[in-house]
Amino acid sequence: KEPGYYADGGGLYLRVSKEGKRNSAGVKTWAFLYTIAGRAREMGLGPVSDISLAEARDIAQDLRKQIR
Q1: Residue 30 to residue 14: CA distance in whole angstroms
Q2: pLDDT above 70: residue 52
Q3: Is the C-alpha dihedral spanning 65, 7, 34, 54 positive or negative?
């Protein structure tokens, strides 16, 4: 995919950055975007090669609970 953020829902995004040295298709990582006290934040959850979509969704759910 092209570089950018691709939403999965609930603040979970697939972040694709420009081409990296290890992967000519770009670097793909999971990111959780959230807001606290009016300030936008981003938390990296790890690379797609290490964390499955199901795991990323579980992590995002746990983070949403902690933020509440």
Answers
A1: 5
A2: yes
A3: positive
